[in-house]
Give the backbone structure.
Amino acid sequence: MNVPRSQQFDDVYFSVQDGLAETRHVFLGGNGLPEFWQGRESFTICETGFGTGLNFLALLKLWRDTAREERPKELRYISFEKYPLTPDEIRRYLSHWVELAEELEMLLAEDLPLGVTLELVIGDVNEEMPKLDAQVDCWFLDGFKPSSNPDMWSETVFANMARLSAFGARLATFTAAGFVRRGLMAVGFEVRKVQGFGRKREMVVGIYNH
Ligand SMILES: C[S@@+](CC[C@H](N)C(=O)[O-])C[C@H]1O[C@@H](n2cnc3c(N)ncnc32)[C@H](O)[C@@H]1O
């Protein structure tokens, strides 16, 4: 498998074991999807760190594979990315997953199914997130590891998450770093550690009940 790595942040974009399985465990499973969106007319997900788009494609596939009456009609996916990859890079990194082939073509052709919108915000999350207007139901926190990419785990990000969260909004992230958990708790999230993916012992999920 061709797993992209960032030299600048000394980290991989997704698990070298199996990126798609990691996405499903951490971000989909961690947020209780697809059950959590059942019965909802519209549903909004916000991600920090679009990267290759693997999380988006896995989510899009889940939505497409779910019966119409059991999925939201309107799915809004917002994602921030400061260092966008090229379409060729995205194709190279994701074509490994044959089961995502249709979703990958949809993304690259900018031809998403009716009802699904992707808002890819190019820029620094700390500058762009304060400008966002949304009611977010689920957060996918997917910066590079907090020790090398602290900008993605900043007080600005956490404060804006609280501002933008719908009542009962959920979050999931691969990291269990103490300062991330404390930062999320400080703005009102209830967080807990759960079983991580693969060799990672722990990850964090949370809920915003304000
Ligand atoms: C672990 S990767 C994301 C993986 C991605 N979710 C995927 O499915 O491939 C982290 C991403 O955060 C981006 N990033 C790092 N610092 C950022 C910042 N300050 N603002 C916005 N994006 C940033 C990186 O360029 C990288 O694409």
Notes: Helices lie at 19-29, 54-65, 87-94, 101-108, 125-128, 155-164, 178-186. The first helix runs from residue 19 to 29. Residues 54 and 160 are 24 Å apart (CA to CA).
